[in-house]
Each structure stands twice: as C-alpha cells, then as structure tokens.
C-alpha cells in the first residue's frame, strides 16, 4: 500500500479521474494524495491568450504534452477528487492552495 503520493502530472492525462481511481486502489486508508497543477492563466500566459496567442511550446505551461489546462479554482480537479471518494478535506486544501497561489 502507498501512504503518500504527489501528482504533478494531471495535465498530461486525457482522463485524470481514471488515474485517481486506480491510485485509490493502492493507497492506504490514511494515505495522502497531493496534487500540483500549473495555472494556465498566470499573468504572462493570460496576456498571450487575450491577444489570441495559443501556441504550444517545448516546455512550460504550454508544454506540447499537456492535454488539459487548469486555471482559477481548479474545479475540474476538485470534481475528479470528489468523484473518486477522497475526503472533503481534499477539496478544502485545494481551494485554499488555489486562493493563496492567485
């Protein structure tokens, strides 16, 4: 059983909820999952989007291996976490982290 897991790969999966579901099968009952998401609307990238620029790059926020983009609130990630049965504490922690990062 895994006691902790740090995910910095959500944006690389077409179906990150499936990853969470599989992870829960090997996570110990007291296990912790920490999720880090890049903010696709940070100031510089947000300005590029406003100017109509949406170009993939070899690395960074617009990495050409990113299949999903997350921004303010991370609602899609929180929804995936709730659907897969993680505690409501996960939602509170993600919401607080998102607010602090903004």
Please describe what this structure looks like.
This protein is α+β, with helices and mostly antiparallel strands and 102 residues long. The chain has helices spanning 16-26, 43-50, 75-83, 88-101, and strands spanning 2-7, 27-35. The chain has a two-stranded parallel sheet. Helix 1 (16-26) links the parallel strand 1 (2-7) and strand 2. The longest helix is centred in the last third of the chain and has 14 residues, at 88-101.
Please identify the structural class as seen in this structure: alpha+beta
Query: How many domain units?
Result: 1
User: How large a portion of the residues is in β-strands, by DSSP E?
Assistant: 5-15%
What share of residues is helical?
Answer: 40-55%
Biggest beta sheet attributes: 2 strands, parallel
Helical stretch count? 4
From N to C, what is the helix and strand string? EHEHHH
Gyration radius (Cα, Å) is 15 Å
Main features:
alpha+beta, two-stranded parallel ribbon, about 100 residues, 4 helices, elongated, about 40% helix
């Amino acid at each position: 059983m895994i006691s902790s897991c740090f995910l910095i790969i959500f944006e690389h999966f077409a179906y990150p909820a499936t990853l969470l579901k599989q992870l829960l099968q090997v996570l110990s009952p007291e296990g912790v999952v920490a999720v880090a998401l890049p903010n696709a609307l940070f100031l510089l990238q947000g300005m590029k989007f406003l100017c109509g620029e949406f170009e993939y790059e070899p690395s960074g926020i617009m990495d050409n291996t990113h299949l999903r983009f997350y921004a303010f609130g991370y609602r899609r990630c929180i929804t995936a976490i709730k659907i897969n049965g993680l505690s409501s504490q996960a939602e509170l922690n993600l919401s607080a982290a998102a607010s602090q990062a903004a």
